[in-house]
Fold each of these.
Amino acid sequence: MDYDDVNVKLKEIEELLQSLSKQHPKEISAFSRFLREVAETKALTTREKELIALALGIAAGCEWCIYLHTQKAMEAGAKKEELIEAGLVAVLMAGGPALMHLIPLMKAIEVFEKEHDGA
């Protein structure tokens, strides 16, 4: 997977939310309010919350979640070692299938590191 493939997945998230916002505005609005409230920094930092979200995405086998939360965690200052450790915690809790979802994690890290280095 390369830069374009990762960004296609991220674009799909955006397109889905736009479409659902038009078709189901009440539900998506409620979800967005909940998301903003949970994302607000309180006891956990944004970095910590994104690492948790990443681990849950890996455990659930959600590639879109893995790409999005890898990107957000890195934007919040997470280092490669922290991302991988969060992934390994997911594997510990979810088992062997989650191990295979470290593949998109490693690809996302590579893409976003290049993106960050090029910025």
Note: The helical segments are 3-23, 25-39, 46-60, 63-75, 80-94, 96-100, 102-118.
Amino acid sequence: MSINDARDLLIYELSSLRSLEQSILADLPNKVRECTSEQCRTLFQRDQQEIPREVRNLDQCFQILGVQPMSVVNHTLEGMVADKQSFLQENPPPELVELYNLDTTAKLEQMEVAAYRSAINTAEHLGEHECARVLRENLRLEEQESRDVDQVFHEVGSRIAGRDRGPGLTL
């Protein structure tokens, strides 16, 4: 499929978001395994349960639009995983790996919020109000997840900073 108009762009954006959500879901078991705190573990486990709902919502948009998702690979997470591999080569302690995961997850959540807002705007401009309504549910979930990640990041970061009040960790 070639991209010739705003509707094609919306289908591409939704397909890219679907790819990203599936990549995040596939990576979450690694993040859960690397958690040192119950707060972090609970956060990522809850995300494992919410992402399939977000994918179903995207699939509902494709049904509303009367199309199949495009075969698109979103490379966002691949870049973040490569950055993490570089970070891990520095042999950080497990608590800092957890903090790193929370930091990158916070960044990723903000990117997802922006992507859903963009898709909603495009759907609205095209008169695809039902699709926009479904996407707003995903936006609401992503905004809540962003707030939750920020809270856990703050709690875990404060705990680590309180213990490591020496050079090398500033939050």
Note: The longest helix spans residues 129-163.
Amino acid sequence: MRQDETQLRGGRIVRSEDPLNLEMPFERLDTYITPIESFYVRTHFPIPAIDRDAWWLNVEGEVEKPFAINYEELLELESRTIPATLECAGNNRNFLEPKVKGVQWELGAVGTAEWTGVPLSILLDRAEVKPEAREVIFEGADGGRLDDPKAPVFRRNTDFRCGQLCRDGTRWHPSNGCSASS
């Protein structure tokens, strides 16, 4: 492929195949909510296969009542839907001078969606967080080593969508970081 050619996958611009990074063609966005098929994909490592029937969320550490909950039990808890915009920190990197290392995103590593999931506060209230607790650490299913030999080994933080069940009323795909749907 010549450098001036744009390769598309499912209507999104391919910024890299391995790891998979797909950018929304920004000029095609004409709504406040980014269509699910256009939402950008940002990965550092292979997308893990998650068996919903074997998946468990463990809440442990500086809590009085540690617990584990499976996907079906999570569905039974109160959920909320909120609009939220996610943006890769490298969005617009292609326009920097001098050029910097990393995926050369233009304007489409950003998207707004209506996210539905169990609020983290419900899970933490159930666990009864101890007063000395100072942080919440999320551990995702993917991980690996970055190209930089000085970089640490990572396990991805799954961000605020801890109990995320769907996006815009549709089950979300693991390529967009969904911890529990498949």
Note: The helical segments are 71-76, 120-127.
Amino acid sequence: MIKQVKEADKTMSRAAKGHEKYGKEGMQALAKAGKEGKSLDPIRKKYDKYSEEVKEGLGELADAAERDHEVQMARADLYKLAKYAIKLHNMLKGISEAEGLEGWVQAKITKAAADIGSVYHHLDYQESEANMPEMPEMAIEGKYKNNAQRKAVHAAKDEKKNEYKESLRAKLYSKLGK
């Protein structure tokens, strides 16, 4: 197959190779620039079908495919982790507090729980951030449109604080019997 391609390249004329690389429109632009004595490099870059952009596009596709593969692998690992976690949980039911666990065993379990928790919270945050409604301009900048708006916001906050304090006071008096 490669040999056939090389032989085809040998038999192709320069014009045919140019049309293959730059297309009809690109070849016309190159011819026009050549007649006018202008630089051909910008035109070559613009119309080149085999430029780095094509390679980058392939790289992005490969990256997407790899990420898809990574998701599948992560799901398989999580399934295995859940299966072992259930088995370990059942094994630990048979071990008393007096018997205890070796330090390294407890450390591994604690580290695994912390790592899984970190991943969960990271993905949960990303998901919730993506689903959040768009914030009004004032909230994004942290500024108020005018003094009246600032006072209204602070008054609402103060009212909530006072309601909370009153509810605590009522609970305290009910506990003390007053």
Note: The mean pLDDT is 79.
